[in-house]
Structure formats: C-alpha cells, structure tokens
C-alpha cells in the first residue's frame, strides 16, 4: 500500500467532518487535492492554467444578444467594511474640480479645465479576486514555496496578481444556489453550508454543464439581502457559503476560478465546534492554486438568467495589474 493510499480520505459531506479537529480535516483535503507541481515548479497561475485559448474562444462564442451585466459592487464610503484587519471602505478624494476650473485656479490656457481624483482603499474591500499569495498553509504558499520568501514587505515577489491580468476571460457559469435551494426570495440563510450535491443539483436545475476552465459565479442571495436590509455583519459575519467538503468537487471539475456574492466565499461560521478560520481557503489557495473571487454582485445577471433560462455566458474579469499585490479590485462583465 502506498503512502498516498494509506492517508484517510477527506470528508465527502459535512456530516462526516470531525468538527473537533479542523487541523486534521484541512490536512486531509490539502493532501488529497494538492496541485503542487502540476504545471511545473515555476507556475504562477494555478487553476487559471485550465482556461486555455480554446476554452476562451468557446466562451466568446456564447455571446448572442450583446447584453452586458456588471457583477461589481460599488466602491465608495458606503461599503461593508468595518475595520477588520485594517480593511476600510474606499476614500475618494478630488484633486481638481469644476469649481477650481470656474475660479480660474488651474492655470491652463484658452479656457480648458479639468478634474482629477485619487482613491485610497484596501485592495480587497469590495468586489475582488484573491491572489495566490493571499493565503498560506503552515508557512507554505502556492506550489510549495516558503511563504516568507514569497510574500514580503515588498509584496508578492513570485505570484503577484499582475500575472492574472491577461487570463481571466472565458466561459462563465452562474450557479444560482439561492434560487434553487433557498427561500421564496431565492436566498440561503446565514450558516448554510453549500455541498457538492447542492452545486450539482443547481447545475442540473439550470440545465448547464460545469466544464474545465470555467469561471463559476455562485449566488447565495446574501448580497441581495444586504441591499434590502443593510450591511449588518456582511463583512466577516455569518454567511452562507461553500462547505469545506466541496474541495474535492472544486478540484475534480478543473474550473479556472470561482466567485461568490459573500465576503468570505465559504460558509461562516466555519464548520467546526472549536476555533477555525477559513479552512477552505487554506486548502484551495495555497494547495490547489484555485482563484477565488468575493463580494460579487450577480443580481442583475441572475434575474436575466432566470428569465431566459441560459446560465452560461462570456465573462471577462481582469484584475488590475498591480505588481506584487495579493488581491485586486475587479469589475466583472458578463455578456450574453
């Protein structure tokens, strides 16, 4: 018997998790679903390697009507952040204004005037991608690199998000789990752990196939609820989200990336009776190399998909090419 076959298998459903031992459950999933070395020792793209030119071309062929939908929340002072780990909402400041121009303060010739502005914000304060240097597992970053050598005060020296800039465009698929498994408003309750069965049954209900290289958008309905009721604990509090036990499905489907309408992608509180924090992140990013998006707004797209029954589309969602960043704001655009 090989060492690999001797390892205990990861839990396939939430009821099988040892809720008293998150470390062991994370370790089993990390070992089973690791992609270290899959694309060579120098890889900086992780699961974006599944999004090939041929798959991107197939995604572009899905455009039929030319209708476009932004999947971004707003970037402003009225956002959800409450200061956790120094995350704040964006601060937008004008440097030059029409008032300045009208007052003749800008010093330009022949009546020309202009406006300029600046924004200060954490890169993960609203709709965003996590980079591969965002999460570590026992001091190790993606592809078996030492975290201390990979991400320093100078930024992510190896897997900075700038490497993603040309890759995140292809076939998008919406899995509206909220509409299929939620309440009459199409919303899952906070703390709802989305399982593999939920994802597969949602795809079946939508009559859409999840394929390698896809960019998945999972709608829970939590963002819709915050729009109606206020932010509350949206940033960091209880939320519906993916179960740790979906790691095998995420690995096996060979998707390129996945995004949700929640702050943390995975179910919160996390699925343990002892202290735990974002265990699926710990498996997915440093071990699987999975690209994760959070705080997306799929509401307009979801309404259109429900109306026409088509849950696949072309999706472009390039991050800003910020050298060495471990996350980036994004304005995803779905085109049907």
Automatic annotation (TrEMBL):
Matching Gene3D superfamilies: Putative cyclase (3.50.30.50)
Domain of life: Bacteria
Gene Ontology terms describing biological process: L-tryptophan catabolic process to kynurenine
Any Pfam family the entry gives: Cyclase
Gene Ontology terms, MF aspect: arylformamidase activity
Coiled-coil ranges from the UniProt annotation: none
Protein name: Cyclase family protein
Species name: Actinospica durhamensis
Upper lineage: Bacteria, Bacillati, Actinomycetota, Actinomycetes, Catenulisporales
């Amino acid at each position: 018997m090989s060492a690999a076959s001797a390892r205990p298998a990861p839990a396939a459903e939430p009821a099988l998790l040892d809720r008293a031992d998150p470390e062991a459950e994370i370790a089993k999933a990390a070992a089973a679903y690791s992609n270290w070395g899959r694309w060579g020792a120098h890889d900086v793209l992780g699961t974006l390697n599944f999004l090939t030119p041929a798959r991107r071309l197939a995604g572009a062929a899905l455009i039929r009507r030319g209708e476009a939908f932004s999947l971004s929340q707003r970037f402003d002072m009225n956002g959800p952040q409450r200061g956790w780990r120094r995350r704040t909402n964006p601060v937008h400041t004008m440097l030059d204004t029409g008032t300045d121009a009208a007052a003749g303060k800008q010093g330009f010739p022949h009546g020309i005037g202009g406006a300029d502005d600046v924004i200060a914000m954490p890169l993960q304060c609203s709709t965003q991608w996590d980079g591969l240097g965002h999460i570590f597992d026992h001091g190790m970053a993606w592809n078996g690199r030492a975290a201390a050598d990979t991400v320093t005060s100078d930024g992510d020296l190896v897997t900075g998000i700038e490497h993603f800039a040309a890759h995140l465009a292809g076939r998008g698929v919406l899995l509206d789990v909220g509409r299929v498994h939620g309440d009459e408003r199409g919303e899952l309750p906070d703390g709802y752990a989305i399982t593999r069965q939920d994802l597969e049954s949602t795809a079946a209900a939508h009559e859409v196939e999840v394929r390698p290289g896809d960019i998945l958008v999972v709608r829970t309905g939590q963002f819709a609820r915050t729009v109606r009721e206020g932010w509350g604990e949206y940033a960091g509090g209880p939320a519906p989200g993916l179960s740790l036990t979906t790691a095998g499905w995420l690995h096996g489907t060979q998707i390129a990336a996945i995004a949700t309408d929640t702050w943390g992608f995975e179910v919160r509180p996390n699925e343990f009776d002892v202290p735990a924090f974002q265990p699926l992140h710990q498996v997915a990013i440093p071990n699987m190399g999975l690209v994760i998006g959070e705080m997306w707004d799929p509401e307009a797209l979801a309404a259109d998909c429900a109306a026409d029954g088509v849950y696949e589309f072309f999706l472009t969602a390039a991050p800003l090419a910020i050298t060495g960043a471990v996350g980036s704001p994004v304005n995803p655009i779905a085109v049907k």
